[in-house]
Design goal:
The structure is a homodimer.
Chain A: E1 3-7, H1 15-31, E2 36-38, H2 58-71, E3 78-85, E4 95-103, E5 106-112, E6 137-139, E7 142-148, H3 167-174, E8 178-183, H4 191-206, E9 210-214, E10 216-219, E11 222-225, E12 229-231, E13 237-240, E14 247-251, H5 267-285, E15 291-294, H6 299-312, E16 317-321, H7 329-342, E17 345-348, H8 352-366, H9 373-394, E18 397-400, H10 404-409, E19 422-423, H11 430-440, H12 449-453, H13 466-469, H14 473-485, H15 490-494, H16 500-512, H17 514-518
Parallel strand pairs in A: 1-2, 2-3, 7-8, 8-9, 15-16, 15-18, 16-17, 18-19
Antiparallel strand pairs in A: 1-14, 3-4, 4-5, 6-7, 9-12, 10-11, 12-13
Helix pairs in contact in A: 1-2, 5-6, 5-11, 6-7, 8-9, 14-16
Chain lengths: ~550, ~550
Amino acid sequence: MQIGIAQINSVIGDFPSNVKRILAAYRECLDAGADLVVTPELSLVGYPPRDLVFKSQFVSKCLQALDYLAGEIREVPLLVGYVDHHHPSHPGKPFRNAVAWLEQGNIQHRIWKTLLPTYDVFDERRYFEPGDSSVPISWNGHRIGVTICEDIWTEDYLQRPFYDRDPVEELTAKGIDLLLNLSASPFHLGKPLLRRAMIGGIGRKAKVPVIYCNSVGANDQLVFDGHSLVTGSNGRITTQLPGFVESCSVIDPFRVVENDAPLGSCDAEQLYHALVLGVRDYVTKCGFSSVCLGLSGGIDSALTATIAAAALGPANVCGLTMPSPYSSRGSVDDSFALAENLGIRCDEVPIRNAFEAIKATLQPVFEGKPEDVTEENMQARLRGLILMALSNKENHLLLTTGNKSELAVGYCTIYGDMCGGLAVISDLPKVRVYEISRWINREREIIPWNTINKPPSAELRPDQKDQDTLPPYEILDGILELYVENQLAADEIISRGFDESTVRWVQRRVDLNEWKRHQAAPGLRVTSKAFGIGRRMPIVQRFVG
Amino acid sequence: MQIGIAQINSVIGDFPSNVKRILAAYRECLDAGADLVVTPELSLVGYPPRDLVFKSQFVSKCLQALDYLAGEIREVPLLVGYVDHHHPSHPGKPFRNAVAWLEQGNIQHRIWKTLLPTYDVFDERRYFEPGDSSVPISWNGHRIGVTICEDIWTEDYLQRPFYDRDPVEELTAKGIDLLLNLSASPFHLGKPLLRRAMIGGIGRKAKVPVIYCNSVGANDQLVFDGHSLVTGSNGRITTQLPGFVESCSVIDPFRVVENDAPLGSCDAEQLYHALVLGVRDYVTKCGFSSVCLGLSGGIDSALTATIAAAALGPANVCGLTMPSPYSSRGSVDDSFALAENLGIRCDEVPIRNAFEAIKATLQPVFEGKPEDVTEENMQARLRGLILMALSNKENHLLLTTGNKSELAVGYCTIYGDMCGGLAVISDLPKVRVYEISRWINREREIIPWNTINKPPSAELRPDQKDQDTLPPYEILDGILELYVENQLAADEIISRGFDESTVRWVQRRVDLNEWKRHQAAPGLRVTSKAFGIGRRMPIVQRFVG
């Protein structure tokens, strides 16, 4: 038996184009000899459709597309993910997260997702009613278990035992010789390795091959990394599809190997490819073809520009350097050097005159009050205004360049450097920004070494350095990982050896800046806990701990 | 028997102050002769705590506060809402949405919420595991059913039959003579009437008195309106506590009346009080004491200023009028007239010079390109920059003044007039803005009649009027209600008699502007479907329907 794995990139709600994409992948697999073809979870819909499913005609249009697709399928079955109605008068949620087994022009089987993740970035119980039985499908002398994403996430790989059901055990108890899983499993650092371990364990325990077909592509904050897998009945990984690109592969699930196929990429490489894919899909799926961004001469904007150039081509990236009286000439030179290395356009727009005019405008109201952070923010906001003007005038999507460390403690200006439609690196702690930048320069200088090696500065007042305000980034990022990703209390972080006053300062700053993050651009999620849809904090609250 | 209803306003995560508030209300009820005192859902915690519950010490600190509270209670029981742990190794979510029955220094009973809303603004299955049995509590010769909020929401009052349990039926079947409900039920227009009908129906069906204790106060986007209720065993409303204020009342639940106590407020009045409470709580719970806002001479900023002055006192509201060359003198005069009527400060900061300086700065980059919407947005963003500078310099929270109709179709400038920490009227359709403004002027002119009567204009180019771009507001708001609140497809809206090209234009504009709303300030929810936490649309999507 040969199984086609169609690791495809669907666009949310675009049923006509998703049908085309699925059929193209199906035919590619047929040509390569597939006897059955699998696509990712909700492949017909795009994941996650969120509240679009509540639109009165969303699910009926999905079902029309499914019928059309079924009509195109003959003897080689196609498994496709879609949204179905739940019975209108039965208790529960209105929809099913479903898989259709298409064969001979018909929907032969419908499978409902059983375990519905409702944590982190997932909200499936908002929409879906779980399936209540898992039944093997008999086909061609085989008994096949079909599962959807979370259905195979065993409690060892979850934060706690969330479910009182285990679809894999149910299927195994009923007898299967092959397990299929259709997934839309978003990337974060460490996730590809985690999945390899989990799926290998399932194969070993159930003693059957497992075919794991994951989605690829980015939808808003989520990047789906592909990395589809096949494990043999001994749990060894026989095939891994590439990460971060669409790919079709036809494999024999019953092949057994002694050593796992390699993952073959380091952290920096995975992060880089995740962000490149995230930018490309956000920009192009929105209908834009080019982006603009401010180049400060610092490392964050340099890395963002590098990622954008890789995602869209250098001709589609416009940099703008906007020196103020507090900017060093070196910053402007570094920006031009970067632009030259990348082959992107870079214009220079000095902000001194406009800044002075705004200060003069406010002088009657501010009379007698000393300059303070207000004027620093005014510079950042003037730059944001100029970048948005460029975006409006030339129809670029503006990228914002802040990193996670800054966003965490609010070391950024709302409506200033936070302006932009997409926050490319807002889930990268600053130390990762450096790590990836060095990885990008591994063969030749792309990001100017001067940008990487100089002390970071916002250049909003004379001789300002980030470390005048912030703890060293190694320490800040260490505290933030414990406080934001692991959700530890300050006392617990201090007990791990961090300085008490630093920890309490960081805690207070993170809590106080929830309001800024509420208005932040969507950011590409690459860690286990990004600011964004997976972390939902009240703004107005007074808990300290 | 006399029951004390403590309709209180808790602060999320502030256990010490919530304990104080609960004890003060408890003692007030004792003094008035209460035999038992009820507080709202999660009264010890504030609703909704959202992801704060995942912080490693949140629930343990909540339990410590509960123990302290229990120690203060003697023979008169107190019912208090809190978050409990679920058993760490039992399958399911980690927490319970719980009520503790405190008596004689101890926690005598713990009740778990059974029906966990996971729709609209609610995410309870993200956090909580449902209770699996509803058991009456015997006390003082009575059998009392204790329920938590959603537990009494019968399927006739929900969008569909969500649940396969009915706690009220379970309790009634086991025999009760009194039903208590602890709620945190957020306001939207029509909700107070809906609750009266539903609770009356429960009393009639179960033939027992119902005590409904609702939370009051605002937390982020949600405004809790109080309006706690008591119905007799004939389903008639014997008592209704006031809306939008804290209140304690001690009542005899077995009293029966023949006519319902009146609700006693019209739509405009309810909306006004909801927004006043929303502003007051957002601003003061955040630790601010004053606000600033831009006054354009238009009705949106005038209504926002009026609400702010009522919420915080006129001395704590700063208006700024920022005329451009396109502003009429009338707009400035109307702003000053409003400020005088309200007794608030108003400064005038003309933006012409700064605007010209910014245009000159961009001239080398924009050379040869005609003026367009870019320059309109630049004016709005310059005003946003100036308002944020005032906010920073004088430590005001900036209020943003856009209405729901504008926000829906993107007739607003991101980082411009959308700047601000709270969007006061962003859930008010424009026709409601007029309705409430006229209601405010019912006895004397507060909002200048000229502001109400002139054609609305953004004044961003010569002689601009809103209706150059938008359909008449009566039509726009009619379409938006069907498209956004009722989630109908364009075809369905057209079939109700709206012009096809107008409907498709509105649909496209609503869909295209999801990205702007993603970065919008939190807005106070007052309709059945606000932009905000209750409506979760993907930004990148291509569904049309």
